[in-house]
Amino acid sequence: MTESEIVEMRGHLIDSMILANVMIRVVDRGGRYEFLEFDVGKSPTDASYARLRVTGRDSVHLTEILDDIHQEGATEVSPGEATLRKAPADATLPVDFYSTTNNETRIYLGGKWLTTQKQMMDKCIIVHEETASCTPIREVRKGDMVVCGEEGIRVVPPPRPRAATGLFEFMNSGSSSERPTQHIARSVAADIYNTKKEGGRIVIVGGPAIVHTGGAPSVAALIRDGYIDGVLAGNALAVHDIENALYGTSLGMRVKNATLVSKGYRNHMDTVNAVFTHGSIPNMVEKGVLKRGIFYECVKRGVPFVLAGSIRDDGPLPDVITDVVDAQREYKKVLKGVDMVIMISTMLHSIATGNMLPSTVRTIAVDINQSTVTKLLDRGTWQALGIVTDVGAFLPLVEREIAGMASA
Fold it and tell me: Which fold has domain 79-159?
């Protein structure tokens, strides 16, 4: 016997693809939908409203459909109160805990909607008094009140920009190596410039290819000129950046002309040894040993950087946080209140950072490998805009465009 439920959606349903995604989810699950009401906003600033009857083969099938479309922003017309259960032990959740997305999430308690704080994907929601917060499992303590099930929960996908906003209007969340690079660089530059002009915060997540390809001076210039508010990376970016600053090489190869240096293979380890000799990257700057580069500019301008370790690291440098849980906490501190994140040629750190961001944060992923961009999107950072290009050629274009805007 079929079962039905009436759901509703509010917001920019058409241009943000909310309505289309709900319809696709219902059909893909083998269900049916019927429009009961559809009020389309008449101006760019007007929200739309839709009310649908969704039908499944039985109650179990209907629940599966509702769970799917709930993630896209559809909510029952008459929601019940959210279900709270006590955590049975530290770092342990009730079996039916609600797992979050990176979209704004509200829960219905005490006759009102509470907006969840610290929105991140793949977390649970803990309620304390009248505050709901996304919480990693490891931080849950016995007796914490955990949101369970799907009832009384509303997911609010962010609207797409309603006016031209540089890259974010042009790219339309696509990734391709065949897009016009000069135009994209100009659009990225405009977004960086305007974000800072409006008082926003921008963080770069970077990999060592920034140095290999000759893009490090451009990133350093952006930091020096005040456009970057934080750098997140691993051991490799720091080692290669400092090697380039000390020896002009990256893994023993001259960055300027891609030729090998005699015994250049030592430069990498000599760099690690030099940092250990002086105790830290800031100490190298203070003692006048490190005189240029990305991390030199970070130290000189007081821009925070976090280096997260991995099992393959050489050294790693004394500045690297080798406990991944501690590193994750420090990443989150730098990302707090961020408006824009630029991910450059680092798949693992990009995916890790993407998992910490709410969907409202503008995110750009730049990599010569399209699969890196695709994996980031597939892991849930759906708002990321992919640019498939050589970062060594792309970053100087962005730097020059920003310099032109600043001097205009």
Answer: 2.40.420
